[in-house]
Amino acid sequence: MRLQDLCVAPIPPGFSLPEEVFIHPGAGDRLGEVASRYLNPPLLVLSDENTRKAALGPMEKFSRAFSGQWREMVLSGHAHTDDPTIAEVMTEGRGIGGILAVGSGTINDIAKAAATRLGVPYLALGTAASMNGYASGIVAVTSNGLKTTLAATPPRAILLDTEILCAAPLELTQAGLGDLLSKPVSLADWWLSHQVEGAAYSELPGRIVSEAIDSILAEAAGIPARSPSALETLARAVVLSGVSMVVAGSSGPASGGEHLISHLWDMQALAAGRPLRLHGAQVGVATLITSALYQRVLSIRSPEFVPPRLWEAEAERIGAEHGPLAATVLPEAEQKHRLAAKRLEFLRREWAGIRERLVSFGIPSPDRLRKPLLEAGAPHTLAELGVSREEARQTLLNARDIRSRYTVLDLAYELGVLPYSAEEVLGESGV
Ligand SMILES: [Zn+2]
Q1: Among the four 181, 199, 233, 322, which has the fewest Cβ within 10 Å?
Q2: Can you give the residue ranges of every domain in the chain?
Q3: How far apart are CA 376 and CA 278, in angstroms?
Q4: Percent helix, strand, coil in the chain (nearest 5)?
């Protein structure tokens, strides 16, 4: 199926996007046929111990069709998308004509990064609708402890076999819904960064993905029931969310302050040697928090703006708050701080119009966003993530430091909502 057939809005030509997407029962059985269309042997098949098992049927058929023309690398189920792992895959992939990613978030990201660096095409056989990165032109990678994104080339084709997706662990599917939940809030953040800092912005990415995300939010109850129709709707939405990022030229339309909160949780876990929680599970809960923050911020008609502190004082605060991560975080925070005075002047002048436009986005309340999470049985509380209230308060206060991108987390400081009302915001979010 052509990508355009998945989408009600026109996808403009000229973007590096997958040419075909197959979302149906038995889509995995087309692996050999699709691989021979887009990839030249020898191929490297990348999976992990869990995803390899999930795709056993399609892999058997593929291995018969590509007999002797492929080799495989099966990573541990705990692999991360980081520089050493990408380098290992590149070494294993020397001389290959393409990579076949058999897995979901981590495997797809590692394959996309390695294929881009090796200059070879890749295909994605997704084993779970757990995140929105399949079609995207970026990879979320941990580089020297900092969670960041790298530009990378999307797969030539994506196969999402609804039979495999239905059999995937439920928590992965629930995480896919959580990752998509952020869209109405992150779109507002993206527009805000466009206004305040001149980031590129257009309405098209929102139009590409909105109908598909609204459909899966309406069908969320089908997720715990493993309904093939709900899984198909979810798969379509995660693919189009990735497409929206390609068309936007950044992760802006799908990644705002809630993603910074999730990324900081990941960075803290990695620094402490703890296992990572599912990205989408964190994003779902973090979205309830940023939604509550938006409700607060948008209730302020005549703010008393808080002037920026001197960088030296900010650097000291970051050193104290981020501990072992401070050195990693400082350059991003400094970049953002450089524009602080200019930003404040702009906000003072334009707040009435900015507020009015942000209100027109109709950012859903925490209660409205919680409904699909509850229907899907997905995490909606800090307790389900194993995050204490105090940890969440700290993360809400400090997540803005890890990336130069402007979000509601920054705006809340400039309007004086943070740091003082952090506890109340958490209360209002209901997490
Ligand atoms: Zn995400």
Answers
A1: 199
A2: 1-168+201-249, 169-194+253-431
A3: 15
A4: 60, 10, 30
Give the architecture-level CATH label for domain 1-168+201-249. Answer: 3-Layer(aba) Sandwich (3.40)
**Using one digit for the tens of pLDDT, what is the confidence trace for 312-324?**
999 999 999 999 9
Residue 89 Cα, ligand 1 centroid: separation in angstroms? 23
CA of 235 to the centre of ligand 1 (A): 14
Per residue in 62-104, pLDDT (tens digit) is 999 899 999 999 999 889 899 999 999 999 999 999 999 999 9
Mean pLDDT over 356-384 rounds to 97
In this predicted structure, the answer to whether residue 22 has a pLDDT above a threshold of 90 is yes
- Is the predicted pLDDT of residue 146 greater than 90, yes or no? no
Mapped onto helix, strand or coil, the DSSP state of residue 297 is helix
Nearest-CA neighbor of 94 among 74, 117, 65, 112?
A: 117
| Cα 272 to averaged position of ligand 1 atoms, centre (Å) | 22
Letter for the amino acid at 150? L
If you measure from the C-alpha of residue 29 to the centroid of ligand 1, how many angstroms do you get, rounded to a whole number?
28
Residue 154 confidence class, pLDDT cut points 50, 70, 90: very high
Q: Return the CA Rg of the chain.
A: 21
Q: Which residues surround ligand 1, an ion (CB under 5 A)?
A: 179
Q: Tell me if the domain spanning 169-194+253-431 has CATH number 1.20.1090.
A: yes
Beta-bridge partner residues of 124: 101, 158
**Distance (Å, rounded) from C-alpha 381 to C-alpha 68?**
49
How high is the pLDDT of residue 132?
93
Is-contact 397 418, C-beta < 8 A?
A: yes
Q: Separation of 248 CA from ligand 1 center, angstroms? A: 15
Query: How many A from CA of 377 to the centre of ligand 1?
Result: 19
**The pLDDT of residue 304 is above 90:** yes
